Backbone:
C-alpha cells in the first residue's frame, strides 16, 4: 500500500526512480523494493523520501488510511 502511494507521488513529481534516489540519498534499487511493497521504509527514510518528493508525509499516510478504511 505505501509503495503504491510512493510511486504515485514520484510520478506526480515527475521523477524517475533514479532521480528520487539521488535526491533522497538512497539507492534506486531500494526505491524499487519499496514501490513493490517488498519492504517498508523506516520513519527516517519515509521522511527523506517525502522531502525529496516535496510531499507532506501525513497526506501520504492519509491516502493509505482511506484505502484501508482506517
Residues:
Amino acid at each position: 500500500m505505501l509503495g503504491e502511494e510512493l510511486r504515485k507521488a514520484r510520478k506526480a513529481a515527475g521523477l524517475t526512480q533514479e532521480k528520487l534516489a539521488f535526491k533522497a540519498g538512497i539507492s534506486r534499487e531500494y526505491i524499487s523494493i519499496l514501490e513493490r511493497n517488498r519492504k517498508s521504509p523506516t520513519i527516517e527514510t519515509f521522511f527523506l523520501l517525502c522531502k525529496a518528493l516535496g510531499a507532506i508525509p501525513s497526506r501520504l499516510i492519509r491516502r493509505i488510511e482511506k484505502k484501508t478504511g482506517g
Q: What stands out?
A: The chain has a mean pLDDT of 95. The chain has one domain: 2-68.
